[in-house]
Specification:
323 residues; alpha/beta; Rossmann fold; Glutathione S-transferase Yfyf (Class Pi), Chain A, domain 2; six-stranded mixed beta sheet; four-stranded antiparallel beta sheet; 11 helices
Amino acid sequence: MLAVGPNGAGKTNLLESLHLGTQGFSPRTRRDREVIRFGERAGRIALSGIRGGTGVESAVTLSVDAAKRATLNGAPLAAAEQLRRELHALVFTPDRLAVAKGGPATRRAYFDRVLVRLYPARAGLPAGYAAALAQRNAALRFSSPEAIEPWTERVVSLGGELVRARRETLTALERPLAACAAALDLLEPVLEYEGDPPAREELERRFEQDRQRGHTSAGPHLHDVRLLSGARDLRAYGSQGEQRLIVLALVLAEADLLSERHGIAPLLLLDDVLSELDVRRRRALAEHVRTVGQTLVTATDAAALPVEPAQLVEVLPGIARSV
């Protein structure tokens, strides 16, 4: 599907609504009231479709006066974010360039989300490690060495599992990433994990320093993933075009991998993805997403997509209609 319309007409709002209705949160903001229309105090998104040959319906209700609520096939969910366990949607927006341009925390968060989608059985690892780390940091500031020891053990154990899972995630992405990057003319993409599992000996060596500072100075909460093209670090030496290509290739690679592993393609939401691609790359992207599953692409002009879309939607202020 290609959604076209002038700047400010609401194309990104349409994409955001699809993400919120399938994942339970906005890709743009974590402040739910920012998603509600100006001047209103509540909003609702309802979606229906087919997943793996079976009908599915989801709904998310937002209010400035109450907590967010969500249902899946009519059944209420304890948290709206539970939608993402059943309905996979991957998004590319201009803001996603921070994965290539931003600091290590942005990349850690991105690849941990990929980890959770690829390995549902390990979904609790990133949050579990973060909770153990927070407890150890609190103990460093306020507790005796004996009280810190159990949290040191927990950080070492969960930290080691998290590093292994992250590395497995990067390894799983290698093959589809190489194929997607080749189609987009990005040479030799490499994902390089920087960091080792936390070792008890290292934490013990840093103990006094950590107590003085009140935080743990070694572990996967400080690691990074370098995005390379050949030997070049794209954060430091890549052009904005190359940074866009590596992030786009990562999204496409994950979509291919999810489809391969689960037999159901994720919904792809690509916002303003065509604006900085040349015609050949636009065509390569269009041909690729045709093989993945359902995709929504936004653009200001239908001519930006060099192939005929399966469906063309014109977005005008307050209106979305098929053309």
